[in-house]
Amino acid sequence: MLLSCLQNNRIEAGCDEAGRGCLAGPVFAAAVIFPHDYQNDILNDSKKLSEKKRNILRLQIEKDALAFGVAMIMPLEIDEINILNASIKAMHKAVGLLKIKPEHLLIDGNRFKSYLDIPHTCVIKGDGKFLSIAAASILAKTYRDEYMLNLDKKYPEYLWSKNKGYPTKAHRDAIRLIGSCEHHRQSFRLLEEQLKLDL
């Protein structure tokens, strides 16, 4: 069962991102503050849940959270500052949107840069350990998926309604056939390297 907090009697915000490994679209991040005794048996790492469950939980999280924030960094900026810095900046922006200032941040993963004067703890695989991080992972994922579904209406050839911008074979085949667009991250390897030389 996931933990409700790292330490009682302080305001903790869980933070996570979605879309780091994508070839297209923004990276999203979310921050969530729950009551310190919050419980939810269904809440888990977004990757372990079906799309239907994630969308149901998104509504529950937004209702139950004391505060939440969701932010994104666009592909152009990802190319300028790199995906790690963009992910951290997106988390900073998400924390900045919280209507309650947290006293401590719980960060999924092992890399973060301090935000303002708020102490933080990095937790590897934190989205499977803390409810607030799991909730942040679900918000980041569902908001990003929704964004990519809307983009798909303008760019159906990339099949973003199915791959959400991740490097699937169909996505790469489309890039190979028609090239990239302004929503692709040009600093990423959009096509796989040739495996053999043309003789």
Low-confidence spans: 194-199
CATH class: Alpha Beta
Helix/strand structural class: alpha/beta
Enumerate the strands of the largest sheet in spatial order, edge to edge or round the barrel. Answer: 3-2-1-4-5
CATH topology: Nucleotidyltransferase, domain 5
CATH homologous superfamily label? Ribonuclease H-like superfamily/Ribonuclease H
What descriptors fit this protein?
single chain; 199 residues; alpha/beta; Nucleotidyltransferase, domain 5; five-stranded mixed beta sheet; 5 strands; disordered C terminus
Q: Could you characterize the architecture of this molecule?
A:
- The structure is a single chain.
- The protein has 199 residues and is an alpha/beta fold.
- It has one domain: Ribonuclease H-like superfamily/Ribonuclease H (Nucleotidyltransferase, domain 5, 2-Layer Sandwich), CATH 3.30.420.10.
- The chain is built from six helices and five strands; from the N terminus they run E-E-H-E-H-H-E-E-H-H-H.
- A five-stranded mixed β-sheet has the order 3-2-1-4-5, sandwiched between helices.
- Helix 1 crosses helix 4 and helix 2 packs across helix 3.
